[in-house]
Design brief:
Number of helices: 32
Structural class: alpha+beta
CATH class of the largest domain: Alpha Beta
Shape: globular
CATH architecture of the largest domain: 2-Layer Sandwich
Number of domains: 4
Strand content: 15-25%
Length: 936
C-alpha cells in the first residue's frame, strides 16, 4: 500500500566524434511519435469499464483496477479515509480463504502487488504469470462484490494502527515531511479535500468506525465507479469471457455524488514557517495551476522541467552548480483534477539562509517572466517528458505501466487511447507559450512560501481508542454466487525460457552481453566494472562512489553542464554509481537516439576530467548529504548497522557515501588512481538490452569502446571475520515518533552453494508481504507499516538483516517478535503451504526481472559480476523448485544464529532503553550517528 504525493591520439579521435554528436544534437527535434497501443474497451451492464490489451512479449499479465474515489470525495472529519479503505481491501473477502490476499497472489508468482491512493483516485494492481489471470479476476471481483461479509472491528482496528504507523514512517519520521504537508495546508482552505494529507490525520484515522467503512464501500466500491485494465499475454476473447464471469454478476451501486468543490484562487501571498529536527533549512514555493489534462497543464509541466527538472535546468545551474547555495532543487507540476500544484523546493547548503535561497529562486523566476526560454530549453524539457512516457510503457502494469496509463486516461478523460493526443500536447508547446504561463501563473500574489527550519518537531498524535461496540454483520452470500468459493486453477502455462545473453568480446578484452527486446523503441546500456566499494582502501571509504559520481561531472570535451544538456536533449537518462561489488555507468534512451547515447556513455566512462573545481563542488555536496543523513532514522540505522557489524577496517563497514573524514581526505590522485585501475576493459562488461540487434550492438561496441585500453590489477576480496557476540546498539534520536530497527549478522557470499535454498528460506522469513516477520509485526500486532529480512549476498559474505520502523512504545516487543521468528525458522520446518509459497513466489516471478530494459540489463549484469553461467536464469526455476523443507531447515540452522546477532535501534533512547534492557539480549551500548561508542 502506498500513498502518492514527482590519452593523446585517442582523445583527438573522441573529440571529433563528440563534436559530430553535438552537431547532431543541435538539430531541431520534431518530437517523438507515440507508440500504438491496440486496446479494446467495453462496458458491462453494471457500468464497469474494461480495457484489454493483448501483448505477448512475456508470459505475464497485468490486472489494474481503478476506483474513481480519493480524498477528493472525502467528508470533513474523515481525512485519509480513502487511503484507510485501500488498506481494508487487502483484509480478505467472503470467498478468499486467506485473510491476506497477498499470500494468494505471491503463491501464484505475482511480481508486482499493491494499491495506491492519490487525491483523485484509488487503484489496485498485480502483475502475475499469464496463466493465473483468472485467479486475479476472482480475487479483485470478490473484494469488489463481497468484502463486507469479512470486514469486522478487529480488522479495522489493526489497519488503523498500520496506517498510523505508515504516517509516522512516511511523514512524521521523514525529514521535511511535516513541511510537505504544510504546503497543501497553505494552498487550500480547510474543508477543501486537498487540504489534508492523502494519508489523513491521526485523529481522523482513529475516529474511523466500521459503519463508516461499510457506507464508504457501498457508495464508491461498485462496478459503475471503476475501470479495469488487463494487459499482457492474453487472448482478448477469453479475457472478456472471464471478466463477464467474475464481474458481470456484481450489481451496480448507487449513483456516485459528483464532486462539488471549487478551488478558490490565491489572491495574496501566504507564508508559513515549519520547525523540524533537520540540519538544513528548506524553502518551498507553490501555486495552484491548471487541472490535469486541461489547457495549460502540459505547458506548466514543460516550464517545471526548464526551471528545476534536473541538472540541465535553470535552478540547478544557478543555485546548485554556480552559486552553490543549494544542496538540491526541483520544480514540478503535480497534476490534479481540482487544480494542479506547481511547486519549487530547494534545500539550503550549510551557512545559507532561507531568505538567500528564496531570493535566488526569485531571480530565476524574474528572468523567465521577462524573457522567453530558448527553443533548445523547450526541446530538452519536452524530449525528456515524452521519453519518460514511452519508457514507462515497458511495464505492463504497476506504477506507470501500460495498464495504469490507459486507466489514467480513462479515469480523467474517458479515452484510454489518449496517448497520441498526450504526446501531441507537449509537441505543441512553444517558447512563447511557456513564457506566457510563467508570467500568468507564477505570480507572487498567487503563491505560498513555506520555510522549514531547524527546531522542535510538532506532531499531533492521539492515543488509540477503545474497542467500539460490536456491529452485527451478515456473512450470508447469495446462493447463486456459491461457485466463487472455489479458487480457480491456473490455465496451462505458456512455455517460456528466460533470456540468456548473447555475448562476445572485443579485442581489448571488453565483454559485451546483449538481450534483444524489440517491443518498444527503448535501449538500455551499462558499463559494469568489477571494482566497487569492496576495493576501497580502509582509510578511504566512499572512494568508489566518489569516483563514479565524478564521471558525469565533466570529460575532456564536455563540461558537467554540457553533459546534462546533451543527455536531456536526446531525452536520455544517464546514471553513474557504485555498489559493494561493482561500479557502473548507464544510459537509457529511445532507439532513434541510440548512437548519440553511446557517444555520451563512452565519453563519461573513458574520458573523465576529474577537474579540481568539480571535485571540490562535489565534495561539498557529499559532505552535506552525509550531514542530511543525520535527519533520517532509516538511513542512520543502516549506516550504524554496517559499521557495528563489520568494523572500521573493512569496506563493508561503510555506506557508499563513506564518512565525513574520508570524503574530506579523498584527493584527485585517489580518484584518478581508482579509475585507472578499476575502469579497464578486461574486467568490465558492456551490457545492452532493448531494441537493438546483435549486429547493431557489435557496431556500437566497436565504435565507442573498441579503442578503450588499460590494464587493471586483480583486487583480492576482503576477508570477513565472524564470531560476534549479541548486543543492542542504541542511536539516540530524542523525540523521534518512531523507532527504526535492524537485526542481523554477517551472512553468505553470492558464490555460496546454498544461495538458492537460503533465498527460498528468506522468502518465508521476511522476503515477501506474507512472510512470517511482516505478518507478525504488521498484521498480527500492528507495530509497523512493514517489516522485512534479506540476505545481501555479495562477492564476499554480505550482511543478513531484518528490519522495520515501529511505534516507539512497541520497540522492545517488536525486537522480541523478530527473534521469535528467527528461532521459529530454525526450530520448525516450513509447512507444505509455506514452502510452496516461498518457492513459487521466487520462481514464478522471475520473468518480472526482464519486464523492462533496465531490469533486463541489471539481471544480465548480475551474471557478469558474480561469474554465473549465461543460462543461469534459465536453469534457476528448476533449482528453486527442487528446494525441500529439510534444506530450508538446514540452511536456517546454519546461517541464522540469533545468539550472535546485532540489534541496532534508532529512536528516543529515554523511551526505549529501559524495556530493551529487559529483553536480556546482551549488553546495551549507545553510539553516535557515525557508529562510534558514546562514553557514559
Amino acid at each position: 500500500m502506498r500513498t502518492i504525493r514527482v590519452t593523446g591520439r585517442l582523445l583527438l579521435v573522441l573529440s571529433l566524434v563528440c563534436a559530430l554528436t553535438l552537431a547532431s544534437l543541435a538539430a531541431p527535434p520534431t518530437g517523438i511519435t507515440a507508440p500504438k497501443i491496440a486496446y479494446e474497451k467495453f462496458t458491462l451492464k453494471n457500468g464497469l469499464d474494461v480495457i484489454l490489451v493483448e501483448d505477448h512479449r512475456l508470459p505475464m499479465v497485468a490486472v489494474n483496477l481503478w476506483y474513481h474515489v480519493g480524498p477528493a470525495n472525502e467528508k470533513p472529519g474523515r481525512t485519509g479515509f480513502a487511503h484507510l479503505f485501500e488498506h481494508m481491501m487487502f483484509q480478505g473477502s467472503a470467498n478468499v480463504p486467506e485473510k491476506n490476499p497477498f499470500k494468494v497472489l505471491e503463491a501464484a508468482g505475482a511480481s508486482d502487488i499493491n494499491g495506491t491512493t492519490d487525491f483523485d483516485r484509488t487503484n489496485y494492481f498485480e502483475t502475475l504469470p499469464a496463466n493465473q489471470l483468472e485467479l486475479a479476476l476472482w480475487l479483485e471481483s470478490d473484494r469488489m462484490g463481497f468484502l463486507l461479509q469479512k470486514l469486522d472491528e478487529p480488522k479495522l482496528a489493526n489497519q488503523r494502527d498500520v496506517v498510523r504507523n505508515e504516517r509516522r514512517q512516511s511523514v512524521e519520521n521523514q525529514p521535511y515531511g511535516l513541511a510537505d504537508e504544510a504546503v497543501f495546508h497553505e494552498l487550500f482552505p480547510k474543508g477543501h479535500p486537498y487540504y489534508p494529507s492523502v494519508i489523513g490525520s491521526h485523529a481522523d484515522i482513529e475516529a474511523a468506525r466500521l459503519q463508516d467503512v461499510r457506507d464508504f464501500f457501498k457508495m464508491y466500491y461498485a462496478p459503475n465507479n471503476a475501470s479495469l485494465a488487463i494487459v499482457g499475454d492474453i487472448d482478448k476473447a477469453q479475457a472478456r469471457a472471464l471478466v463477464d464471469k467474475y464481474f458481470g454478476p456484481i450489481p451496480a451501486g448507487p449513483p456516485v455524488p459528483k464532486i462539488d468543490v471549487k478551488t478558490p484562487p490565491i489572491t495574496a501571498e501566504r507564508r508559513a514557517v515549519v520547525t523540524d529536527k533537520v540540519e538544513l533549512p528548506k524553502v518551498y514555493m507553490a501555486w495552484v495551476t491548471d487541472p490535469i489534462f486541461q489547457p495549460g497543464d502540459a505547458g506548466e509541466q514543460v516550464l517545471a522541467r526548464i526551471l528545476g527538472g534536473g541538472k540541465s535546468s535553470r535552478l540547478y545551474k544557478s543555485l546548485v552548480y554556480e552559486k552553490q547555495i543549494a544542496q538540491d532543487v526541483t520544480a514540478y507540476q503535480y497534476p490534479l483534477m481540482l487544480g494542479s500544484v506547481f511547486g519549487i523546493e530547494a534545500t539550503a547548503k550549510p551557512g545559507t539562509t532561507p531568505e538567500q535561497l528564496e531570493a535566488a529562486i526569485q531571480e530565476e523566476l524574474d528572468k523567465i517572466q521577462k524573457e522567453a526560454p530558448s527553443q533548445a530549453e523547450v526541446d530538452r524539457a519536452r524530449n525528456k517528458i515524452e521519453t519518460q512516457i514511452v519508457q514507462r510503457l515497458e511495464t505492463l502494469g504497476g506504477f506507470g505501466g501500460v495498464a495504469d496509463r490507459l486507466n489514467m486516461y480513462n479515469h480523467f478523460l474517458k479515452d484510454p487511447g489518449y496517448l497520441p493526443k498526450d504526446i501531441a500536447r507537449y509537441n505543441a508547446i512553444t517558447p512563447a507559450a511557456v513564457h506566457r504561463i510563467a508570467q500568468a501563473k507564477l505570480q507572487k500574489d498567487a503563491r505560498v512560501v513555506v520555510y522549514c527550519v531547524p527546531g522542535e518537531k510538532k506532531i499531533e498524535d492521539v492515543p488509540q481508542t477503545k474497542d467500539e461496540p460490536k456491529l452485527e454483520i451478515s456473512t450470508a452470500v447469495d446462493p447463486s454466487q456459491q461457485w466463487r468459493k472455489e479458487q480457480p486453477k491456473p490455465a496451462a502455462a505458456r512455455v517460456f525460457t528466460l533470456p540468456a545473453p548473447e555475448t562476445f568480446r572485443l579485442a581489448n578484452g571488453l565483454k559485451v552481453m546483449v538481450v534483444e527486446r524489440h517491443e518498444l523503441p527503448v535501449v538500455s546500456a551499462s558499463v559494469v566494472t568489477l571494482t566497487g566499494s569492496d576495493a576501497n582502501p580502509p582509510e578511504r571509504p566512499g572512494l568508489a562512489a566518489f569516483t563514479a559520481a565524478m564521471l558525469s561531472e565533466g570529460t575532456a570535451t564536455r563540461s558537467a553542464l554540457q553533459i546534462a544538456d546533451d543527455v536531456d536533449q536526446i531525452g536520455a537518462t544517464l546514471n553513474t554509481g557504485s555498489s559493494a561489488d561493482n561500479s557502473y555507468t548507464g544510459i537509457r534512451v529511445l532507439k532513434n537516439n541510440t548512437d548519440a547515447a553511446f557517444a555520451l556513455l563512452s565519453d563519461v566512462t573513458l574520458h573523465p576530467a576529474f577537474d579540481a573545481k568539480e571535485i571540490e563542488r562535489l565534495r561539498k555536496q557529499r559532505l552535506t548529504a552525509l550531514l542530511q543523513q543525520n535527519d533520517n532514522p532509516n538511513a542512520l540505522a543502516t549506516r550504524v548497522f554496517y559499521h557495528v557489524l563489520y568494523g572500521d577496517k573493512h569496506p563493508y563497514g561503510f555506506i557508499e557515501l563513506g564518512t565525513t573524514a574520508s570524503v574530506k581526505a579523498i584527493t584527485r590522485d585517489d580518484l584518478m588512481s581508482f579509475w585507472k585501475r578499476g575502469y579497464v576493459p578486461e574486467s568490465s562488461a558492456l551490457v545492452i538490452a532493448g531494441d537493438v540487434t546483435l549486429a547493431e550492438a557489435r557496431t556500437l561496441a566497436e565504435k565507442y569502446f573498441g579503442s578503450w585500453q588499460g590494464k587493471g590489477e586483480k583486487i583480492a576480496l576482503p576477508e570477513v571475520a565472524g564470531g560476534a557476540t549479541r548486543r543492542i546498539v542504541i542511536v539516540d534520536k530524542p523525540g523521534a515518533p518512531q523507532t527504526q530497527l535492524r537485526v542481523g549478522e554477517i551472512g553468505i557470499a553470492r558464490s555460496n552453494p546454498d544461495y538458492v535454498p537460503v533465498e527460498v528460506m528468506n522468502m518465508m522469513l521476511g522476503g515477501t508481504f506474507s512472510s512470517r516477520i511482516n505478518m507478525n509485526l504488521r498484521e498480527e500486532h500492528g507495530y509497523t507499516y512493514g517489516a522485512f529480512s534479506r540476505f545481501l549476498s555479495r562477492r564476499a559474505p554480505g550482511p543478513f538483516v531484518a528490519g522495520s520502523g515501529v511505534r516507539t512504545d512497541a520497540t522492545a516487543p517488536a525486537v522480541r517478535e523478530i527473534f521469535n521468528e528467527l528461532n521459529r525458522m530454525r526450530a520448525t520446518d516450513l509447512t507444505p503451504d509455506e514452502l510452496a509459497l516461498a518457492r513459487d513466489s521466487l520462481a514464478r516471478s522471475l520473468p518480472g526481472r526482464f519486464e523492462t530494459t533496465p531490469e533486463a540489463a541489471a539481471s544480465i549484469a548480475e551474471i557478469f559480476v558474480y561469474g554465473l553461467p549465461n543460462d543461469y536464469f534459465q536453469t534457476l526455476p528448476a533449482k528453486v523448485d527442487a528446494v525441500s523443507a529439510a534444506e530450508v531447515r538446514r540452511v536456517a540452522e546454519r546461517y541464522l544464529t540469533p545468539e550472535a546477532m546485532t540489534v541496532v535501534v534508532v529512536g528516543d533512547r529515554a523511551k526505549i532503553e529501559p524495556e530493551l534492557k529487559t529483553l536480556d539480549l546482551g549488553p546495551v551500548e549507545v553510539r553516535d550517528a557515525e557508529g562510534n561508542v558514546v562514553k557514559p
